[in-house]
Amino acid sequence: MTIAKSNSLHVQLNLVVKICVIGDAFVDIICVMNNTEHEKRDQPVQILPGGSGLNTSSHLCPLITDIDSSYTAEIELQTVLNEHDSHVMSIEYR
Q1: What are the DSSP E strand ranges found in 7-91?
Q2: Sequence ranges of the domains in the chain
Q3: How far apart are CA 46 and CA 35, in angstroms?
């Protein structure tokens, strides 16, 4: 945290870290297999947002603020999505 002195008053500066991630965004399909045949899962297959660009951008913000809580992180992801893909809505707006 940086403190600036002004007329004997301490002023806390708001430190903003801005990062632009350029990368991919995909859908991860997770399938959970059980050890027994008789056990049934409510959702054996899950569709989750994924891709290295999306994962990196979503993990950077908590990483920066955990290092120093006085920082604010603004993370932007530059990627390409197929607007006709039915799975795109699971990625957008999260």
Answers
A1: 9-12, 15-22, 26-31, 45-50, 71-78
A2: 3-90
A3: 18
